[in-house]
Amino acid sequence: MKIKPIYGTSQMKLKDKFKLIRKTQGLTQTAFAEKLDVAFRTYQKYEHGTVEVSMKAFLSLTKNHPEYALWLSTSSVEPEVGQIAPGNNTPKMGKDGVPAELLNAAFEQTLTTSIELGWITPKEGVNFSMLSDLLRHDFVQQGGRLIEQAEDDEVKTTAV
User: Which of 9, 51, 8, 10 shows the shortest CA–CA distance to 33?
Assistant: First the structure.
């Protein structure tokens, strides 16, 4: 699995990454400082660059937002394992179910890898999208909950 660098963030300073996460979350400096358990004035100094971000604040941020841990430390993402950058709308598995888009992407990656490794051989007339439909059906039949985004942005959950 190859880690993907995010264009334009490799030179981003940690203070700017903190600010981007805060703004992406729609939080004020005060609210974000409270969330990180640091003093408001200290957090302001982080964003202004007059004080380096402390390890305590860094660890607190990764605890509150583990999905950004890889990006914070390396400026790279790995969406397949839930490591994203702020503003990245990659679907994530949640308590309400699995986004259909995530299940489809996982199946497509598994299928591609299986073909590349020679485990399966595509045959003329075989439509792999039917396998994807079967996987989705079986997933729901086994008790999984599938979340699908309709074209009108309405969310539909499929369960047994």
Answer: 51
